[in-house]
Amino acid sequence: MVKRWSSLTAASLVMLLTAAACGGSSAGGGDASGGGEEGGTTILRVFEGIQETPRLEAEAEKAIEDFEAQNPDIDVQRESVAVENQRTVIQTRLRSDQPPDVFGYDTGPGFAGVLAKADLLHSLEDAYEKYDWPIYDWAQQRVTYDGTLYGVPGSVEQLGVYYNKELFSDMGFEEPQSTDNLDAIANAAQDEGITPFAFGDQEQWPAGHLFSMALSNILGREGIDNILYGDGKWSDPQVVEAIDLMFSQYTENGYYPDDVNAITYDDANTLFYAGEAAMLPTGTWLIPDLDELVQDFEVGFFPFPSVDGSSISPPGGVGGGLFVAANTEVPEAAFKYLDYTMSQESVERGIETFNEIPAFQIDPAEYSVSPLFETVLDELSEATNPDAYGYNIDVLTPANFNTVMFEGFQEVLNGTRTPEEQADALQDAWAEAKAAGDTLEAP
Length: 443
Hints:
- By secondary structure, the protein is α/β, with parallel strands linked by helices.
- The chain is 43% helix and 13% strand.
- The protein has a five-stranded mixed β-sheet with strand order 2-1-3-12-6.
- The chain is globular, with a radius of gyration of 22 Å.
């Protein structure tokens, strides 16, 4: 039996399988063991996100070919869309005449949780029992909705700050441990004519990452848990402090590019790649691009620093996951596909090619990775202890809350809404979601 490990997750299998899936059934109506047209071949339809570079796309194709070689009775038929279109098409595809068999999607209650509530996901309880996938319990909880396990969590991710190591050295700085240190670095970068932070919020979701970094430090995991599962409120002063720091103070200080709400995530990244910005706040999924596209300087990575003496609790957790459509006609073929993503060869490809961290224990020394990814693996070495990390908020919050959060942060950035008004709006949205039963149950 193949040794079980992880999936080609998030940036690969949730870009290898990340956008949704196009429906599937056995050719001629056969089941996963055979039958149908073309000599009994089962057709497994997979709707994927398009890889960001030709090299990674070729690796995604190779993963499918390897699966088919090991399962000659299954023919994987791929369809892909741009990842940013995923959220707008997934429900339509799931309700179509040819619904998906396997697809990748975000794991939070505002994403896959919505699909589960609409009875669009197939339970994976039996698959977990059959294949004994060794995924962290806390990661399984992220794909469990109303007590049912529906998904295979993608890679472990962390939010933090990438930085230009040569620029930091030339300016005489090391990685900051406090926001006072960070201010000094940002001001020095401005003196050099360099934008401190490469940040663009045209798509709105990048602001959620900045909020998550500040709030995780200010409140810590326990404080956020108190809001998610206890009596805490999004209108509390500490939440206002996080919003004010990231979206009012840093904007007023000129730490972000001009017209930040008009700048796309990709364009902001390009500023950093070109050496025109000192730092880039985002997630570990970007490492393949950084390794491939940054040529003129070495990239470092640090967690967002302490805010006025707070702890440093970098947001960590699971990004996307893999799911099976509720009305797939080939569930066993879909389960085989998920199980393949746990094979050692898939894990090796995920780690060494796509720079993904599996949602279960590995020994980083067994893999050949870039210096930047090695740094991140070391940072995430405590992944078995989620209490050491904060949260990426939008993965845990429902759709109505995320809409208010994303749209409201743009208004704070442009000065038409105060941090206090935004915090109050978040609390109102949260109360509405709780009343509708759309929030997470306590783990």
